[in-house]
Amino acid sequence: MKVITGCIIKKDNKILMVKEAKKEIYGQWNFPAGHLEEFVKIIDGAKRETFEETGCKVKLVGVLPIINIDLEKETHILIRFLAEIVEENISFDKEEILEVKWIKIEDIKKMKKEELRGYESAIKTVEDVETNNIYPLEIFNNKKYNS
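The chain above was modelled as a monomer; its predicted structure follows.
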C-alpha cells in the first residue's frame, strides 16, 4: 500500500496542474502530488511534493475526502489538501514534469480520460472543490508518537 499526498491549489476559478513526463502517464495532467516517504508527516509531504513539482510554496487550508484506489498490484490512499499560494515561483524538474499551468475548472471537467491522470478520482476531486466538500485541517494530528 502507498500513501499519495498533494495539493489542489485554486485561484480565480483555476487549478494549478502539472503535466506528467513519466513514461506510463506521459502527457497526462495531474494535481501536484507524490508518494509519502517513510517518517514524513502527511501535511509536510503534501507541501514538499507541491513545491518539488511546481516550485510554489503553499499554505494548506483544508482536506478533501480521502480516496482509496485499488490497482492491480497495490492499493493507493490519496490524501489531497486544498491549498493557497504563498509564493508562486513556477519551476520544475523537466525529467518528471513537462509543464505547470493554471487550468480553468470547466476545462479540467471537459478533459478526456487519456488527458487526465486518474480520471474518475480527478473529476471527483474537482467536484469536491466546487461543492466545498472540504474538511478542517484539524482532522490531522501532526504530532509524531513513539512506541
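The radius of gyration is 15 Å.
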